[in-house]
Recover the amino acids of this structure.
């Protein structure tokens, strides 16, 4: 779960902390850190842009297009 989340958001420390707080299991901290870093590293090899950045770029471009279409006479 930590590896997948770290890969999707490409933020391993955030994923590590969130999963650690959600599970409350402090016995596997090192394994959780390792899984987060592996997920992050794999995601960076596949795509250099985090998912949320790519999605926000599309959303912002659409908002700009709408605003320009409304402003055009």
């Amino acid at each position: 779960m930590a590896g997948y989340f770290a890969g999707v958001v490409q933020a391993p420390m955030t994923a590590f902390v969130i999963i650690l707080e959600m599970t409350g299991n402090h016995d596997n901290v090192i394994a959780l850190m390792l899984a987060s870093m592996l997920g992050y590293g794999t995601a960076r090899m596949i795509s250099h842009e985090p998912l949320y950045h790519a999605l926000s770029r599309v959303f912002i471009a659409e908002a700009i297009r709408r605003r320009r279409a409304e402003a055009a006479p």
Summary: The first helix runs from residue 2 to 9. Residues 56 and 64 are 12 Å apart (CA to CA).
